[in-house]
Amino acid sequence: MAERKQLMKQSPQKVVKDAKPTEVEPKVLSDEQYRCTCCGHKYKKQETYFNRSKSPIYKGNNGFMSICQNCIAELYEQYIKFYNGDEDAAAERICQITDTYFSPEVWAVSRKISNSRNGKSRNRFSTYISKLNLNNQGTGTTYSDTLVRRWEADVSNAETTKEVEDNDDIETPVDVVRRFGTGFSAGDYDSLQYEYQNWVDRYGDPIDKRQEELYVSICYMKLNLQKLLQKGESSIGAASNSYKSQIEAATTEIEDRKKKAEAEKQLSPLGEMIRDIEEYCPAEYYKDKKLYVDFDHLREYIERFMTRPLRNLLTGSKELDKEFSLSDMEE
After folding, report:
1. Is the pTM of this model over 0.85?
2. 217-248: per-residue pLDDT in tens?
3. Number of CB atoms found within 10 A of residue 128's CB
4. Same domain as 147, residue 52
5. Residue 164 counted as domain residue
6. HSE (CB half, 13 Å, CA atoms) of 260?
7. Residue numbers of the domain that contains 63
8. Are 277 and 265 in contact (CB under 8 A)?
9. Cys bridge to 330: 29, 46, 117, 326, which one at CB 3.0-4.6 A?
10. Is residue 2 in a domain?
11. Are 280 and 206 in the same domain?
12. Stretch among 104-118, 279-293, 298-312 having the lowest mean pLDDT
């Protein structure tokens, strides 16, 4: 009892009841190891040895890829050899494997970085991932977004000319799409525009909507004929005859319209001719100002057959017309 009383005696030291010592927390929060699914090596940290990813397939892996950076670098080098030295194809293949968005623009910047500040070789794909995460504003996150971007870059998939105009990846000019309509491939548009320009070079720019539609319809028929020929279709004979008839009718109509326009131009009043000259080829633009001073010889006519006879009549001079006046040598 004496001993118990001694233990229970009042202590002068103040204590905090809720702050009594508990379990000591270990310095290592977790002894979990992260295994690379490619080489099998175990790492204690994901941040240092694995690239981050925005793909949903890595959500359960804390947002990190399951292949370590060393293996990705090695795979990249192997695929360069596989693609016969094509680094772009090798990088895209790694993006396919890791479900990463492939941006040609970001990759082009990453390719320029080959060495670090200390002269050691840098992991280009890890550099690409870092830059992609920094610059990824409104672009894709997974390789599926790469496929979507390529699908949208195919002009044949555009439903409106507005989509063509707004998509910088589409190389076909929007004016060509407006002229021939949507739904054609890039190669088809090239063929159509080449044929259209050929007609313009031969017969001039369309003077009205009818002639423009005539050019366009011939381009359609030429493209259709080429495709039937490539496929070996039996209907190529009928299509060829239709194309030939359309060509003959078109050339005849264009020639007739040109002749009619030229005839109307020849019958136009003098004032209209002068207006056209001043509108399309003003005389003041010429270095020799006298070249078009009396282009219709009206001033010369007045001088020879009106002013000169009147001057002879009033003054008694005997000035002869220069065309019919002979000099002493000619006499």
Report:
1. no
2. 999 998 998 888 888 888 888 888 888 888 88
3. 25
4. yes
5. no
6. 7
7. 34-153
8. no
9. 326
10. no
11. no
12. 279-293
